[in-house]
Amino acid sequence: MSNSRLYTRLVTSIQRGALAAAILGSATVFLDATIVNLALPAIGATLPAVSLGVLEGQVYVVAGYMATLAAFLLLAGALGDRYGRRRVFIVGLVGFGVTSVACGLAPTLDLLAAARVAQGVAGALLVPGSLAIITELFDGQARGRAFGIWASATSVVAIMGPPIGGILVEAFGWRSVFLVNAPLVAIGVGLAIRYVPELRAAGSPTRFDWPGALVGIIAVGGLSFGAIRGQQTAWSEAGPVFTLALGALALVAFPVLMLRRRDPLVPLSLFRNRVFSTINLATLLVYSGFYVLLYVQSLFLQGVLGYSPLGTAIVGLPGGLALAILSARAGTLAGRLGARRFLVGGPLLMAAGTLWWLRVPITSTAWLARADDPASLVPPLAALVDPLPAILLWGVGIALVVAPLTSTLMGSVPMDRAGIASAVNNALSRVGQPLVSAAIFILSTDRFYASLGARVPGLDAGSAALRRAIQPLNAPASDVDQAVRDAAGLASLEAFHIAMLVVVALFIGGAIVNWVGLRPTHAVRA
Q1: For the chain, how many structural domains are there in total?
Q2: How confident is the model at residue 201 (pLDDT cuts 50, 70, 90)?
Q3: Residue 397: how many CB atoms within 10 A of its CB?
Q4: What's the CA dihedral at 250, 251, 254, 255 to 10 degrees?
């Protein structure tokens, strides 16, 4: 066998092993963002709370993880560029494994919430490193395909999170939801040690920007946690407003600080690159709309149309399968044909799918309204005609976006900035969702109670008792009068339409940004 062939096989082996490690690293992070939700009732019922209330503790188990994951992304990306992406990636894997075990063995709800916060920090070390590793080891069309495979695999894991969580909780208890990460992390560490070379940015700055990292953590973490917590408490507490204001203040201060630092955490010169700025703005718009759509769609199916959690998960599978099947192909084609047509067409398809929801009537028949009812196993026609086109359209649309967007972003920056570039993009995608959700919550909630009050004469829609019993996009309490329940359903439909129109505007905005900011034949950098 010739030396060139041996070299090619060696490179291919390294690429495949490193890609598998990158997928496992990202997949565990994404899995824990979804798998825990179905375990929350069991956690609240069995785990004692010391200083936190049960509901508050459950909120921190979810919000604490998501907020710290977003907050530490910038720091993680910069650490990888500065000290070595392989090293930081392996530290993140080990940390994620240790904190997952700590979550699984937590004796109280308070300690579980604390472990989840630490788990989010460890997870932040994995996501930018995964993308930077792929960027370093692949180029040209192969990079687009690698990002497509990464997107397909991580999407399947995220989509399967709720069903997997339900099975684990039923069979082994809620602790297994966290402990299952240990073997996955062990495999990832083994792959990273064997296949991932040490990837350290050339010409790294002599000083690390710790003040910039701190301000970045406060900005992203404050905005994320404030918005998440505020929405979950219906903005009835002062804490989320203060946290949100602190995050906004830090966000304003961050670019000023970056201009004054000799070796800034995020060089603002990156944003002089038209492609980099375009992709990040489009990411903020499209991904904010996408995550909000998934969340509000689930509430609508269950709280208004009466789907069971299992029925909701199954109805959403076609969109997830479209994403998993088409992502690799879209990444390859974008590397050959240019990303612009994908990054314009994809969001427009997602907007079309979202608009389809506006025609779904409140009388649409639910599939698997009761999981224990054998008669509900046969899907009614409405379960196919009403949600399926919407779900397929956004599934195909997001499949056209994920790999081309990531490839174009990573190809627009120097290799020594791959980690921080990925971190900026991921931070924007994660901080946008809770902020947009908070804005939609305020708009739709006001509309819901105004509509409810107008539909039921004499009803005090502003009373605290009524607002506890009846909430938008949720089934009213069982003791609520039937006339009020019917009116609440129609008011929820109006609130849902408002949310969908905001999402449509975000998708169309993302398409316009990509149309204007990218060249017609912009291809992934070789």
Answers
A1: 3
A2: low
A3: 28
A4: -150
Backbone dihedral region of 197: left (phi > 0), alpha (psi from -120 to 50 degrees) or beta? beta
Write out the H or E segment, with its range, that includes residue 328: helix 309-337
Q: Is residue 190 part of a domain?
A: yes
Residue with tokens 């990888």: 80
- Print the domain residue range for 312: 267-431+506-526
Regarding whether 230 and 123 lie in a shared domain, the answer is no
Confirm if 17 and 78 have CB atoms less than 8 A apart: no
Domain identity same for 393 and 339:
yes
User: Can you tell me the mean pLDDT for 419-438?
Assistant: 81
Q: At what angle do helices 309-337 and 140-172 cross, to 10 degrees?
A: 170
User: For 454-476, what is the mean pLDDT?
Assistant: 75
Question: Which residue reads 């009213």 in tokens?
Answer: 476
Burial of 53: CB neighbours in 10 Å, binned 0-12, 13-18, 19+? exposed
411 pLDDT above the threshold of 50: yes
pLDDT at 78: 86
Question: Distance (Å, rounded) from C-alpha 503 to C-alpha 126?
Answer: 29
Which residue bears the tokens 């025609």? Answer: 359
**What is this structure's pTM?**
0.83
Q: How far apart are CA 309 and CA 314, in angstroms?
A: 9
